[in-house]
Amino acid sequence: MEYKYSPKENFEDLSSGRVIYGNYGIPNYPVRLVNEIYRRCLAYSPKKGNIKLYDPCCGGAYLLTVLGFCNQNTISTIYASDINDSMVKYASKNLSLLSPAGINERINELEALANLYHKPSHSMAIESAYRLKERLLNEINVHVFKADATNKIPLPEPVDLIITDIPYGNLVDWQGDASAFSKMICELINIATPETILAISMDKKQGLKNDRLVRLEKNNIGKRKFEIYRLA
């Protein structure tokens, strides 16, 4: 895939587990790729700033936290939801890093670890945290909540962009059958407006067919693919 909007650069400050919290079961996403997806969505959107962004399968919100750090000039509000209580907890911790108070708390944690264990990795993480702090031009409004993305998502207001990496196996676990994918797509359509742009990352074996959506583009990335849509 040709990158149009996200130039190649060093993203090590945004590595999972360095400053952004990571843990077993928290999905990651390539930083350059998710920035490219976001910026392609922005190109399709009639709005170019003050963007309200939502991920209904946020996991630990690594994807959203990365976007928040990298797109301070266009994102105003982030909504994040997941069905798993543990993931909601981690999502709240990670998205708090987008505030001065949250990143300062993380710096204090890393400095305490560095003083206790004297590991080079902690010193490097502190340096990364200070660099990420310098990225914070505006404090993004953050809202994290528990929700089943296949059943009446309680989103309090319309959003401009919906970007999500669909965890196929987890969706089947939620509902006990493969129809969960279609149910989630229907719920996303229900909360979208004619101006909303949707980007869905999924396994190649998943097929998205819905007469209420118009596909704007499709790209294959290894074993996965992402597709960008708007309402028909």
SSE map:
Blueprint: H1 31-44, E1 51-55, H2 62-70, E2 75-82, H3 85-96, H4 100-117, H5 120-135, E3 141-146, E4 161-165, H6 168-175, H7 180-191, E5 197-203, E6 213-221, E7 224-231
Parallel strand pairs: 1-2, 1-4, 2-3, 4-5
Antiparallel strand pairs: 5-7, 6-7
Helix pairs in contact: 1-2, 4-5
Report on this model:
With 232 residues, the protein is an alpha/beta fold. The chain folds into 2 domains: 12-99 and 140-231, Vaccinia Virus protein VP39 (Rossmann fold, 3-Layer(aba) Sandwich); 100-135, Helix Hairpins. 38% of the residues lie in helices and 21% in strands. The chain has helices spanning 31-44, 62-70, 85-96, 100-117, 120-135, 168-175, 180-191; strands spanning 51-55, 75-82, 141-146, 161-165, 197-203, 213-221, 224-231. Strands 3-2-1-4-5-7-6 form a 7-stranded mixed beta sheet, covered by helices on one side. The longest helix has 18 residues, at 100-117.
Short account of what is shown:
The protein is of the alpha/beta class and about 230 residues long. It has helices at about 30-45, 60-70, 85-95, 100-115, 120-135, 170-175, 180-190, and strands spanning about 50-55, 75-80, 140-145, 160-165, 195-205, 215-220, 225-230.
Radius of gyration of CA atoms, rounded to a whole number: 17 Å
Share of helix among residues? 25-40%
Sheet with the most strands, sense and barrel status = 7 strands, mixed
Name given to the CATH homologous superfamily of the largest domain: Vaccinia Virus protein VP39
Number of domains: 2
According to CATH, what is the topology of the largest domain? Rossmann fold
CATH class of the largest domain: Alpha Beta
> Based on the structure given, which CATH architecture of the largest domain is correct?
3-Layer(aba) Sandwich
Give me the number of helical elements. 7
* Structural class assignment: alpha/beta
Number of strands: 7
Overall shape: globular
Q: Kindly state the mean pLDDT as a whole number? A: 94
User: Strand content of the residues, in percent?
Assistant: 15-25%
Question: What string gives the helices and strands in order?
Answer: HEHEHHHEEHHEEE
Strand order of the largest sheet: 3-2-1-4-5-7-6
Uncertain segments: none
Distance between the termini: 26 Å
